[in-house]
Amino acid sequence: MKRTVTIPATFISIALGVIIALAGSQGSELYNGVALFAICASVSYLLHWIIFIPSYIYQTEHYFDLTGSISYLSAIGLGFYLNPSMDPRDLLIGVLIVIWAVRLGTFLFSRVKQDGKDERFTIMKTQFHWYIMTWTLGGLWVFLTMAAGLAAITSNVNIPLG
């Protein structure tokens, strides 16, 4: 894929994440003056970028899907840990996200290990800009798919369950 596509797409996916993190931070608990929603949102990007480094160096896609699951678990775990006002609804939502992340991550990681590769990445992993775009989009995907649950978990409003 051409750099004229991958570079703007990378910046657009970061910008979308920032905009949604700012919007989702309305009504969020604060941790040291920063919205907990935004802190947790950044985890999905940061973990993807950290794992991208050795994945690009060693030209492997084996940890892409596993990184997604670890990002879900880390963001939700951080939300639980830093939220001073957890309630049963937050716990229920978090447990459902954890179940989803473990189930999907286990399946996808096992499939790549069994097959030895993921065909989607054959060319992509050899081209820096294309590969970093893909890892950045992975961070955005994790954030977007858990944003509603994350907003509930990090909310400074507690509504009784039931």
Write the layout of secondary structure elements.
Elements: H1 3-24, E1 30-31, E2 34-35, H2 36-57, H3 64-82, H4 88-115, H5 128-154
Antiparallel strand pairs: 1-2
Helix pairs in contact: 1-2, 1-5, 2-3, 2-5, 3-4, 3-5, 4-5
Short structural summary:
By secondary structure, this protein is mostly helical. The protein has helices at residues 3-24, 36-57, 64-82, 88-115, 128-154, and strands spanning 30-31, 34-35.
Tell me what you see in this structure.
The protein is an all-alpha fold. The chain has one domain. The protein is built from five helices and two strands. Strands 1-2 form a two-stranded antiparallel sheet.
Looking at this protein, list some descriptive labels.
5 helices; 162 residues; mainly alpha; two-stranded antiparallel ribbon
